[in-house]
Every structure is written in structure tokens, then in C-alpha cells.
Design a protein that fits this description.
Number of strands: 14
Radius of gyration: 20 Å
Largest sheet: 6 strands, antiparallel
Distance between the termini: 55 Å
Keywords: cAMP, cAMP-binding, Nucleotide-binding, Phosphoprotein, Repeat
Function: Regulatory subunit of the cAMP-dependent protein kinases involved in cAMP signaling in cells. Type II regulatory chains mediate membrane association by binding to anchoring proteins, including the MAP2 kinase.
Strand content: 25-35%
Order of helices and strands: HHHEEEEEEHEEHHEEEEEHEHHH
CATH topology of the largest domain: Jelly Rolls
Shape: globular
CATH class of the largest domain: Mainly Beta
Number of helices: 10
Organism: Hucho hucho (huchen)
Helix content: 25-40%
Family: Belongs to the cAMP-dependent kinase regulatory chain family.
Pfam family, one: cNMP_binding
Length: 282
């Protein structure tokens, strides 16, 4: 068992950095503690490459601080396709699926990362994900909007999902907020609302098991256009924005068609599209 000793201050910083990492959400307390024990801290300067596309994977990385560009070589041309800004994690795909690195990550500011070695990652995270796959395999295969994905790609979706419970009337997303997650209803019902004016909120849809919400802001890169509330006890599967973009690219056409349906619904309800409503509420 790999252990890197840490001061109380380091342990506290590490726990804070790992708090919202979806891959760690399904670990039990003992597994999570073993992961924290095995992680080690590394600093990077501007311009340093953390990983390079096509290399073998050695570590999984959790960002404590710093800005890191995501670069991909497409048809021989290197393009910056995104960035991590003082939060998030990367490097899991090569370790999970024994594939070369899918992108290059470059520090664009001084930064600090927590690293987890390949063997510990595979022993704890990959093993845990195999259990989760068995649990969610049937459910994920039944989702119509994932039909354009191969079975292996659908299983990758399972790997990056975490389950989150919500109590009756708890707000899941809030209109106007920046979007960082996508949700699939695992059980229960979710009420979707939109503000007709500053003081009036109108129900526009209800989502039940197998339906999804929260994708509109991720597809359009705009703030949340609606709010969502739990109706009774609800469990949702949650996927972060980076995984959404990386894994659900082939599903975008279906999602865009559904967004066109939203627009029709909204015109019927409000006489306006989402864009008009957003402008009116500014």
C-alpha cells in the first residue's frame, strides 16, 4: 500500500481539493482515506507539460490551484480545446481504459496538483467502478438519448457519473447560475420552472426516471435558463461539464433536437423563446 506522509495542513488542503471530484464520490470512507494517503503534491511552472497526448498514463491529477490548458492534436494541428481554472481533475481515461493520453495539459500559470499513481488508481477506483457498472448497466442502456453511443462508450458514461440524493422541494439547479453539471433522474420526479417575471415562477416540465435536464446551458454555453426542484425524494446521476463534453459529443444532435422542442413549448407558454425570456429578466 503506497503512503505519502502529509502534515495536517497538507491533508486539509488535499481533502478540500478532492471534495467535488466525481470519481471519488462513490468510494467508501476507508477507500477514500487510502486514496488520500497515496496522493502526493507536485508544483508546476508556466509552460510546463503535465501530460502529453499519446503518452502512456502514469498518474491521475487533482488540481489544487492554477490554470491549465487542454490541447489536442487534430489532423496534425494542435488546438486548445478548453482549460481548467483552479479546480477539477484529469488523466483518468488513460488509466481506466489502458489507452494513450487523449490530450496534452499545459500549465498557463504557476500551479499545484495532487497526483495519484496508476497502480493505486486501478486497485481502488477502477475496481470500485466495476461494481458501479454492474449496478447501472441496465439503467444506462435503457436511456434513449444514449442510443447513438457504442456499448463501450455508454459504459464510460457510467464511470463518470455519481449518484446524488435530493429531498422534497430541494433546489437542484437555479435559473441564472453558471452550469457545471448535467443530471439524469435515477428515481423520483423533478419539476422544471422558469421565471415569467421577477416575482412569478412557472412550471414548464416534469422529468421522471431516465429523463435528463441541465444540458441546455452546457450545449449553449449560457447561464441556466431554468430552475429544477425535487418532487418528493429524488436521486439524480450527475456528470460534470468536462466529462459531458468529452463523452456525450455524439449525443449532441439528439440534445439539440430536444432543445428545439423546449423552444416550441416556451413559445406556447410565454409567447417567447429562452433568449427573449433571458433578455426580459435581465
Amino acid at each position: 500500500m503506497v503512503t505519502h506522509p502529509k502534515t495536517d495542513e497538507q491533508r486539509q488542503r488535499l481533502q478540500e481539493a478532492c471534495r467535488d471530484i466525481l470519481l471519488f464520490k462513490n468510494l467508501d470512507p476507508e477507500q477514500f482515506s487510502q486514496v488520500l494517503d497515496a496522493m502526493f503534491e507536485k508544483s508546476f511552472e508556466v509552460g510546463e507539460h503535465i501530460i502529453d497526448q499519446d503518452d502512456d498514463g502514469d498518474n491521475f491529477y487533482v488540481i489544487e490551484r492554477g490554470i491549465f490548458d487542454i490541447c489536442m492534436r487534430v489532423d496534425g494541428i494542435e488546438k486548445t480545446v478548453g482549460a481548467y481554472d483552479n479546480r477539477g481533475s484529469f488523466g483518468e481515461l488513460a488509466l481506466m481504459y489502458n489507452t494513450p493520453r487523449a490530450a496534452t495539459i499545459i500549465a498557463t500559470s504557476p500551479g499545484a496538483l495532487w497526483c495519484l499513481d496508476r497502480l493505486t488508481f486501478r486497485r481502488i477506483i477502477v475496481k470500485n467502478n466495476a461494481l458501479k457498472r454492474r449496478l447501472y448497466e441496465e439503467f444506462i442502456e435503457s436511456l434513449p438519448f444514449l442510443t447513438s453511443l457504442e456499448l463501450s462508450e455508454r459504459m464510460k458514461v457510467v464511470d463518470v457519473l455519481s449518484s446524488k440524493p435530493f429531498s422534497n422541494e430541494e433546489q437542484i439547479i437555479s435559473q441564472g447560475d453558471l452550469a457545471d453539471c448535467f443530471y439524469i433522474v435515477e428515481s423520483g420526479q423533478v419539476r422544471i420552472t422558469m421565471k415569467r417575471s421577477r416575482d412569478e415562477e412557472v412550471d414548464i416540465a416534469t422529468c421522471s426516471r431516465g429523463q435528463y435536464f441541465g444540458e441546455l446551458a452546457l450545449v449553449t454555453n449560457k447561464p441556466r435558463a431554468a430552475s429544477a426542484y425535487a418532487v418528493g425524494s429524488v436521486k439524480c446521476l450527475v456528470m460534470d461539464v468536462q466529462a459531458f463534453e468529452r463523452l456525450l459529443g455524439p449525443c449532441m444532435d439528439i440534445m439539440k433536437r430536444n432543445i428545439a422542442n423546449y423552444e416550441e413549448q416556451l413559445v406556447t407558454l410565454f409567447g417567447n423563446s429562452t433568449t427573449d425570456i433571458e433578455e426580459k429578466n435581465l
